[in-house]
Amino acid sequence: MRKINKQVPPEDLARYVRRENPQKFEEIHHTSHYPELYGECVEYLKTEQDNLSGYTEKPLRNGVHIDHYRKQALFNTQDMVFGWENLIADEHNSSYGADYKDRLVTMREEYAKLINPVLDDPHHYLTYMDEGIIKPVDGLAEQDREKAEKTIEVFNLRHPLLKELRERAIRMVKDYKVQGLTDAEILEALHDFGFTSAVEYALQGN
Predict the structure, then answer these.
(1) Contacts of residue 141, Cβ cutoff 8 Å, sequence gap at least 6
(2) Residue 140, domain member (yes or no)
(3) Structural domain contains residue 75
(4) What SS3 class is residue 68?
(5) For the chain, how many structural domains are there in total?
(6) Domain limits at 57?
(7) pTM for the model
(8) Using CA atoms, how far apart are residues 168 and 131, in angstroms rounded to an integer?
(9) What's the maximum distance between 2 C-alpha atoms anywhere in the chain?
């Protein structure tokens, strides 16, 4: 997980909300005035996130959807349902990420215990091991350590596949270093592989 720097949303999104006054996000699929709006929003979000899942850092390829970080069932006001800062692109996968989070989080109060990648810098809380394991940064205050652990749990960031892919990324960094590539060349070579935070961890020589 890495910081998402939100950009200006599609202009049509504000027009749609103002013109049609929708109450549920699902209504965006049924507007005749803005038939391409959902796809446009997906592409904007993917660009903001460098084509990575906003939670796992897997590349966004198939089954990409718009997730409400604070889910609609708990935060159903229009400003939250259509608020750009609450929208994050992810893949549909019941084993980790957005879909996994939505099953585990059942109360509004639980969000205070989670890292919000739009408002928080996940790198303050999370780091990696060469084996691809994600863990809290050493020396965190107790409250921050608990926030890191809860985030790992709620998004299932220790899922075996995610661990395997991060380990592979770290191993490739080390191989490229042996070959004499610069950090910039390694970042470019591994851009489409995803897991940029794990790549950066390996580049720092940890």
Answers:
(1) none
(2) yes
(3) yes
(4) strand
(5) 1
(6) 11-161
(7) 0.94
(8) 9
(9) 58
